[in-house]
């Protein structure tokens, strides 16, 4: 399926969190630092659409310098953001510590119970993308090592795509989980951008025809996939290269246990710097799920969820919605016969969800 050329990024809003919250170190944050830490200073570091971020510089009890990364949010949404990120990063670090900074804590400021934080190891990173084969080999290793603790799809705490909660309830089948997940994404996008009859029709056709056609074959006809831990938002803004080790590093996670190929969705939009070469490298280290011939269109479907989320973030700007409409038109036309038509043509027993 052809790739639609995306527009330039459209975010132009100021950060809601006041800069004053990273001018000093709250006592709750200080209490989470290693015992004996002497704080040398706190300095703004990095950029974020919805939070304030800083580097805390310390001297440890043995005299060595050590820095920590602090992210500060506000309100109930911000609290959910940092608690979900902490649990996500903890799960990633437990599975493959070489790939992600070590998470330390999340919590609420003593000064103001409306201000919340995430604290982790500080990693000095370059401005370079991670090397293609090394990064995808490590990502494949992460997926191979981290199957769901209960055999289901979901996550044990809510996690957010930016400021929007994603579906995380434990679910037995991938088709059912993804259907509920993208349906929530469709509903969030409609609340953000307003109702449109064409969009509503395409969303319904996608749910009733495209999702079963592309996902049910993964779990029928003797085929099988396992829920695996994914970062959940792995685009070039959430990964880089560690200066000290020259290895890939990933951060800002919003984890779920999912079909591992969902991780590759952000590599499809041409607005992102990590593209097809990363997908190809990944499949050198992790096999494509059968039916292999469906892989590219599964990626289109998974990217639809990603781009619909992007549309939600920018109320009044319909650029991403237009991209999604174009994708849904192509998918619903191509798969008008749905799963049943596909199974009948292959001589497979038609299975219900």
State the gist of this model.
By secondary structure, this protein is α+β, with helices and mostly antiparallel strands. Helix content is 37%, strand content 15%.
β-sheet strand percentage? 15-25%
The largest pleated sheet is described as: 5 strands, antiparallel
Sequence of strands across the biggest β-sheet: 1-2-3-5-4
Cα gyration radius (Å):
21 Å
Given the helix and strand composition, which structural class is it? alpha+beta
| Mean pLDDT figure | 94
- Overall spatial form: globular
- Uncertain runs are 1-11
Descriptive report:
With 353 residues, this protein is of the alpha+beta class. 37% of the residues lie in helices and 15% in strands. The chain contains 9 helices and 11 strands. A 5-stranded antiparallel beta sheet has the order 1-2-3-5-4. Strands 6-7 form a two-stranded antiparallel sheet. A two-stranded antiparallel sheet has the order 8-11. Helix 4 packs antiparallel against helix 5, helix 4 packs parallel to helix 7 and helix 7 packs antiparallel against helix 8. The chain is globular. The N terminus is likely disordered.
List keywords for this structure.
single chain; 353 residues; alpha+beta; five-stranded antiparallel beta sheet; two-stranded antiparallel sheet; 9 helices; 15% strand; globular; disordered N terminus
